[in-house]
Amino acid sequence: MLPEQTPLWQYAEQIIRDVLGAYGYSEIRLPIVEKTELFKRSIGEVTDIVEKEMYTFDDRNGDSLTLRPEGTAGCLRACLEHGLLHNQVHRLWYYGPMYRHERPQKGRYRQFFQLGVETYGMSGPDIDAELILIIDRLWKKLGIRDKVRLQLNSLGTITERMVYRESLVAYFQEHLDQLDEDSLRRLETNPLRILDTKNPAMKQVVANAPDLMDYLGDETRQHFKAITTILDDLGIGYEINSRLVRGLDYYSKTVFEWVTDELGSQGTVCAGGRYDGLIEQLGGKPNHAAGFAMGMERLLALMETLDNIQLARPVDVYMIRVGEKAEQEGLRFSETIRNEFPGLKLQVNCGGGSFKSQFKKADKSGAEFAIILGDDEVDRGQVSIKSLRNNEQEQQDMSQQQAIKFLQDYL
Ligand code: ATP
Ligand code: MG
Fold first, then answer.
1. Which atom of ligand 1 is nearest to the CA of 294?
2. Which of 200, 219, 292, 308 has the most CB atoms around it within 10 Å of its CB?
3. CB of 112 closer than 6 angstroms to any ligand 1 atom
């Protein structure tokens, strides 16, 4: 990620921090490696991630470690280890690189960044809806609200899913000839995952499969209804997609994805849901959890098409210094300026050079103004200021105090 790309990232990251702050979420910082076992137990043995995407290696003790392919497992591991799940509720977020050995293409990388948000200890539909509100607010602040849409589904409880699973298996058994190799294998191990297939040849057989919605019990239906009522009430649009199963094993009840049509087959920008079962699965007491993960590269790809983002300049003011006295006095003055204007980005020319070559560098820096000191100016107790963006504006001589006043007016 080269320096010309980072301002847009920083812009997005700042908005993300602010929005999460506005909902009272706290940051947690997690390690990049975890024991391989953790991911196998949480994500599930029969998932794309665990079957073929993890970067796994033995360390010097012979322990199997894995570069984290996602953050949910590590976050829960940390919270269990430090007793954060005992009679408490938490609203957490983390941000950083994840690793999956996939075929790199636009929107799909082997190292990619995710924003992850996890909540613990809350069972109601209100927290599920809060997560969706956060994401919706993020889209608005980031300026891409009209490029993404929300898809919503309920996966039911484990019991409800078991019953559904049986009907699903029975259905696919009758259509074995239409299943691809992956799906034939999943029929034995994790048949729901077949619904998540990206193989166009299987579209038809999946479309005619039994509908999970028909297998949900009253409690699950009420939970789901409560979410849609909140969303309706607050004017947040959604589509119900009963084929949405997500690539991970640990979900229950609510699942959602935010998708876009602008990134080809890498269309999911954000995905999440409720995963009540996972805490117990990882050795904790039964508890509640819901969260989501947002793919930053896909988000940034959507933002790159916007033309109304005002990114911060890397340099506001460039200081030109020619001569020994000017170098000394200029450096001193630059520190005074930084004391006066903590937010100002002032770059001081280093490494000497003629006025002409320093002006070139000043121009290239992107700065708005140059402050110019030659030994002459120093002798007269003056500095010069010149606009680098407006040729009509004459270079002006003034005292250091006046220069500070000038910058104050400009800011
Ligand atoms: P996909 O179906 O695109 O492979 P996934 O279901 O594997 O996505 P999740 O594990 O739910 O993805 O991760 C959440 C988000 O992280 C995705 O919606 C996507 O935006 C992003 N993401 C996942 N894998 C990658 C990757 N290899 N490169 C870039 N972003 C990714
Ligand atoms: Mg994937």
1. 15
2. 292
3. yes
Work out whether strand 396-399 and strand 382-387 pair parallel, antiparallel, or are unpaired: antiparallel
Q: Which of 250, 266, 269 to mutate to test the pocket of ligand 1 (most atoms within 8 A of CB)?
A: 266
Cβ–Cβ under 8 Å, residues 269 and 116: no
CA-based torsion, 123, 124, 128, 131: positive or negative: negative
Task: Say yes or no: CB of residue 247 within 6 Å of ligand 1.
Answer: yes
Q: Which residue has the tokens 């919270």?
A: 79
Residue 71 C-alpha to ligand 2 middle, in angstroms?
14
What's 69-130 look like in SS3? CCCHHHHHHHHHHCCCCCCCCEEEEEEEEEECCCCCECCECCEEEEEEEEEECCCCHHHHHH
Atom of ligand 1 nearest to the CA of 198: 2
- Residues 53-79: tens digit of each pLDDT: 999 999 999 999 999 999 999 999 999
pLDDT band, residue 247 (cuts 50/70/90): low
In the 8-state DSSP scheme, what is residue 247? S
Token pair for 49 = 């991630």
Ligand nearest to the CA of 108: 1
Q: State the pTM of this model.
A: 0.92
Give me the domains of the chain, ranges plus CATH numbers: 6-156+216-303 (3.30.930.10), 317-410 (3.40.50.800)
C-alpha to C-alpha distance for 164 and 213, rounded to whole angstroms: 9
Q: Where are the alpha helices (DSSP H) in 218-343?
A: 218-233, 277-281, 296-303, 324-340
Give the Å distance between the CA of 268 and the centre of ligand 1.
7
Measure the CA–CA gap between 209 and 172, rounded to whole angstroms.
8
Which residue has a Cα nearest atom 8 of ligand 1?
Answer: 268
Which atom of ligand 1 is closest in space to residue 298's alpha carbon?
A: 20
Going by pLDDT thresholds of 50, 70 and 90, the confidence category of residue 287 is very high
What average pLDDT does range 355-380 have in this prediction?
96
Higher pLDDT, 300 or 45: 300
Please, which pLDDT band fits residue 130 given cuts at 50, 70 and 90?
Answer: very high
- Residue 48: predicted pLDDT: 85
How far, CA to CA in Å, does 76 sit from each of 275, 304, 307, 381? 11, 33, 39, 62
